[in-house]
Specification:
By secondary structure, this protein is mainly beta. The protein has a single domain (4-116), classed as Nucleic acid-binding proteins (OB fold (Dihydrolipoamide Acetyltransferase, E2P)). The protein has helices at residues 56-64, 106-118, and strands at residues 4-10, 15-18, 26-35, 46-54, 70-83, 89-102.
Length: 147
């Protein structure tokens, strides 16, 4: 089974082109920044996943999606290769989009966009320790039902 489900934000506006012929087909390409659940030292905290949407899904991306939009997508992984102008073989991996939905309301999206414009992003304190487990504050153990 080849099935992928991702949630992330678009890193740029979708690049939409149309095929030639009697029935042009929309082809939208965009990149999703998908946060990693845990971050280890000297590792990135997000993965950047290339996505491609065809037909109506491509038209939807063109009309409604823009840089910073938080979406949930499902689809399948597709690999391929081509030879570039220097004669080198280049391997590609894309998620072919089958479904895409908004992951936040329009009001929340507008609020997040406004906040990111007015305030530089400050580093957030990590709730996870270096071993990947969440730190439990002192004195909280008495309140836990299983302690």
């Amino acid at each position: 089974m080849n099935k992928v489900v991702l949630m992330g934000r678009l890193t740029r506006d979708p690049d939409v082109r149309y095929t030639q012929g009697d029935r042009p087909l929309a082809v939208a390409r965009y990149t999703l920044a998908v946060n990693r659940r845990f971050k280890r030292d000297n590792e990135p905290d997000a993965d950047f996943i290339n996505c491609v949407a065809f037909g109506r899904a491509g038209e939807f991306a063109e009309k409604y999606l823009k840089k910073g939009t938080k979406i949930v997508v499902s689809g399948r992984i597709q690999t391929g290769s081509y030879t570039n102008k220097d004669g080198m073989k280049v391997y590609t991996t894309d998620v072919v989009i089958e479904e895409q939905d908004f992951a936040e309301s329009k009001a929340v999206a507008a609020q997040n966009m406004a906040a990111s414009v007015t305030q530089p992003s400050a580093p957030q304190p990590s709730a996870a320790s270096s071993d990947g487990f969440m730190n439990i504050p002192d004195g909280l153990e008495e309140e836990l039902p299983f302690s």
